[in-house]
Write a structure and sequence with these properties.
The chain has one helix and eleven strands; from the N terminus they run E-E-E-E-E-E-H-E-E-E-E-E. With about 150 residues, the protein is mainly beta. It has a single domain, classed as Deoxyuridine triphosphatase (dUTPase) (Deoxyuridine 5'-Triphosphate Nucleotidohydrolase, Chain A). The relative contact order is 0.26.
């Protein structure tokens, strides 16, 4: 398996260091780097307390953890954040935009989102056709119906 190196700068000593746990999941948890209290309906950018230099040709995808909504009542407002390798300066601190659906409190070091890196999409050309020649799958929400 190919191994990549990410250079990381921590902007606080209060959050745990990022770790990659091989064999468990290739998503890496990100932690709140600030204490935040939000009332229902309020939104905010929450600092994750890190800056990174991703490998050339890669981007990071940031999404909520499966427990974020249940535990904190937060929705990530961009639903999926993308950080490309050019966002790599010392002051390019990663943040996550959230909306509170209930009154909530986030403590420093709470795991509120996760990320993974992926290679950039290759260049694509589109070839127009009158027919694709494949069987229809059935539309939205049809997978798994009996």
């Amino acid at each position: 398996m190919e191994k990549e190196t990410i250079r990381i700068k921590y902007h606080t000593k209060e959050i745990e260091k990022l770790t990659y746990i091989a064999g468990k999941s290739d998503w890496i948890d990100l932690r709140a780097a600030e204490h935040v209290i939000l009332k229902k309906g309020e939104s905010r950018l929450i600092s994750l307390g890190i800056s990174m230099q991703l490998p050339k040709g890669y981007e990071a995808v940031i999404v909520p953890r499966s427990s974020t909504f249940h535990s904190f009542g937060l929705i990530q407002t961009n639903h999926m954040g993308v950080v490309d390798e050019t966002y790599c300066g010392d002051g390019d601190i990663w943040k996550v935009p959230v909306l509170a659906v209930r009154d909530t409190e986030i403590h420093v070091n709470d795991r509120i989102c996760q990320f993974r890196i992926q290679k950039h999409q290759p260049q694509i050309t589109f070839e127009e056709t009158e027919a694709l020649g494949n069987e229809d799958r059935g539309g939205f929400g049809t997978t798994g119906r009996q």
